[in-house]
Amino acid sequence: MRPSKKVLYRLLSLQGISMLGSRLSSIAVGIWFVKETGTVTPLLLIALFTELPLLFFGAWIGLAVDRWRRKTAIIIGDTGQAVCTALLAFSLLSGYFELWHTYAVAAMQGLFMAMQSSSTAAVMPLMVHDEELDRVNAVKELLFPLAGVIAPLLAGTLYELVGLAGIVMIDIGTFFICVGVTLFLPLPEINHRPVERVVNVFIEAIQGYRFIWKNKPILYLMLYFAWWNFILNGPLELAIPFFLYRTGSDSAMSWLLGVMNAGALSGAAAAVWWGHFRHKITFIIAGSLLTSTMFIVVGASRLLWVTAAALFLLMLPLAMTVALFSSLLQRKTPLSMQGRVFAAYSQLSAVSAPLSFLLTGPIIDHWLEPAMQSGRWKWLTVLTGQGAGSGIGLLFIGCGLLLMIGAVWAFSSSCVRHMETSTPDR
Asked: Which residues are CB-neighbours of 349 under 8 A, at least 6 positions away?
């Protein structure tokens, strides 16, 4: 018998509290770093170092999730993140801070974040029926944009009142709440067979990739979502400078950022309200095409209301699309392999997302912005104008087209379009 859905929603609520604490600490460290050093460039590299553990150890993280009790993996993930936050705060406040401390802590934190995320995804199919996975995955995806709305509002006020040390203590307090309650949650487990020989551990570590390779619809979808991460991550980090260049107003920029978060929240909330999606692939295709089209509109638009509407629609399908993809993976993957399969997907993302961060900045700074502002490509100024931000606008248009091409490639395959019926459930 499956445990009550209330247990799962309690677990997700605890994960949301933990995520809010982590976002508060992240923003507070960023504020402290900028005020103390006067530079932001090293902060952009933190995202890269956070992804590195997944890149190198993703298969082993997945194996650990599948070998250990799921509750143990979740608690270790929470505990590790809290310890990393405390170590970084100690370094910053001790007077012996060095830049490499930040990168080392980011890498360790990425390891524990991956374990927490993979173990939570793997425990969900044990707690609800398959037709309920869409809704609970949507609830899970709702947490990130919700924390993204609440944390900035709280961080600025709390930083002035209690400083970095106080916010870190709040983060650690959320850890005690989450771990303390999780310890008493009746989370279900699967039976683990013992490891007979050391060599089997290495073989089993790559079983997730073998399963994906044998199931071509899952492979094609994973490659598409890796492409999706590559196209979206870097350009979306340019939202603040792009909005400032386009509007010339701090208040308008903040309003547009609010519209982005509102779009993401609305999409996740709509998925929660809808509940079960019968034709998941159809919704994923429609969401992909909508996002890619709106990327093009945002890049070309010079009217505030058009930009705002396009941003809202751009963000609307993101959480829903990720939730439906997670549901497909959970339904098609054997329970004993879900940790490794989700870790393999995260490992692919760990390649594409950092690469996007590394390439986007130089492309804008050394190529697109200078070329567009100098009028070297006059035939393109019809699309984006010639002022500051025109190079970023051109990048958005190009990324929208590339995202659309990727969607056409992935969904031109009949095995992908029909995977819900042609690929057997676990």
From this structure: 51, 54, 225, 226, 229
221-235 in b/e burial notation, b at 16+ Cβ within 10 A?
Answer: bbbbbbbbbbbbbbb
pLDDT tens per residue across all 426 residues of the chain: 455 677 888 888 888 888 888 878 777 776 666 566 654 455 556 767 777 777 777 777 877 788 888 888 888 888 888 888 788 778 877 777 777 887 888 888 888 888 888 888 888 888 888 778 888 888 887 887 777 677 766 776 787 788 777 888 888 888 888 888 888 888 877 665 554 444 465 676 677 888 888 888 889 888 898 898 888 888 887 777 788 788 877 677 767 877 887 888 888 888 888 777 878 888 888 899 999 999 999 988 888 889 899 999 999 898 888 888 888 888 888 877 888 887 788 777 777 877 887 788 788 878 888 878 777 777 777 777 777 778 888 889 999 999 999 988 888 888 888 888 877 776
Residue 300 lies in domain: 207-420
- H or E, element range at 12: helix 5-37
**DSSP at 206:** T
Among the listed residues 276, 1, 275, 2, the one whose alpha carbon sits nearest the alpha carbon of residue 127: 2
Rounded CA-CA distance 416/89 in Å is: 46
Q: Are 2 and 126 in contact (CB under 8 A)?
A: yes
Give yes or no: residues 106 and 180 share one domain: yes
Q: Is 426 inside a domain boundary? A: no
Q: Please check whether residues 49 and 156 belong to one and the same domain.
A: yes
DSSP state of 127: T
Is 118 within 8 Å of 346 (Cβ atoms)? yes
Looking at the fold, whether 176 and 226 belong to one and the same domain comes out as: no
